[in-house]
Structure formats: structure tokens, C-alpha cells
Amino acid sequence: MQYWLIGLLLVSTPLAARAAEPVDTALVIAVDVSLSVDTGRYALQRDGTAAAIASPDFARAATSGPNGAIAVTVMEFSDPDRQIPVVTWTRVASAADAQALADKVRHVQRSSAGLTGIANALLTADELFDESPWPAVRRVVDVSGDGMSNIGPPIDAVRDRLVADGITINGLPILTEEPWLETYYTLYLIGGPGAFVIVAKDLDSFADAMRRKLVAEVMVSQLPSPTGPPRG
Question: Which pTM does this prediction carry?
């Protein structure tokens, strides 16, 4: 065997092994960027998500499980053909990892604007799980937005499909446009083991609501026992 090939194997093997390391949770953060979210609201929502990820509470929760790590990707959604990952899968195994992820989120530029295709966002999230480099014990979709789904397939039918595949869907309704959105999310969106809704009454309270939601989603002590092997 050529020496260069031996060297390549020595370098690549640890990287491949790290890529195969399981994580406790694979989390898709799905963020509404439909037309009801103006430029100012978009910035508050984006920066609030980054602040939540950068919080010490999130880093502690992310590293609290047996595998000591989670995987996170961020997707923005509006029209059915505008379900766009804006931060690729990132492994969070330390406070430094969480800070680096938060920095990526802060630098995201808005990907689209349109109608509110929540069901299509769920379908895209389902596909994203298959792209994660790290097998996960638990898969969670975190949906935040300020409006009901108004385009695409029935949201509850898609929810039921994901839940049947072992995925948990949680919701963070922002009550700036539709005061009844909490009820809508509760009845039609959330599902799966431990599913819940946390409300942001306005965008000023969004960062705190997102922080509490992310911590609850990845804190192993609050999660149900896994019923099967890691998926990924």
C-alpha cells in the first residue's frame, strides 16, 4: 500500500468514526418566514433563536444525555416550494459548539416570503432527518410561527404520518397576529411522545420562550425512555 494512502486512512478514520457517533436528539428548528413576518419581526425571530441557542441552559441540556451531544439544523418555511435549510446539521457537544451554532443563526439571511405551508415544513423536516450524519435516539421538529397553515396538505394528516414514524413535533406559536394560534397548534400541529406547546405572546418574549422550549426538548431528564435503537 502506498504511504500516502496509509496516511489518508489514518486521517480519515477518526473523522468517519466521529460522524457515526450517535446523538441523544436530532432537532429540526422550523421557522416561519411567511409574509406576515416583516423585516423587523424576522430579525427579532432570528436573533431570538440565536440567543436561545447561545444560552448556558441550552448547552447544559444539549450535553446532559448518555451520548453527551445533540444534532441541530435550522429550516425556514413559507410556500410549499420554499422549505429551505439555512443552517446545516451541526453537532452540539459543548458550550463552544452551541455558541458556534448561534453565530451561524445570527448570520442567516432571509430565504423566502410567501404563504404559510406548515405541513410542507413537516414533510421537509422528515426528509432532513435522513440527511443527518449522526444517528439519533430521538427525533424532534420544533415549529415556530405566527399563523395557521394556509397552503399545502392537511397539517394534521402530515403530523400523524410523522408521529407514526416516531417523530415528536412541538410548537411555539407567536400570538401577534392570531390570538387563537395556541389552540390551533395544540389541536392540529403537535404530536408524539412528550409533545408540548410554549407560547410567545409577542416577539419581545420570543427569545425567552424559545430558550425554555429548546431546553425542554433536549433535556434528557424530561424525555420519555427511548423505545428503539438510534435512527439516522
Answer: 0.87
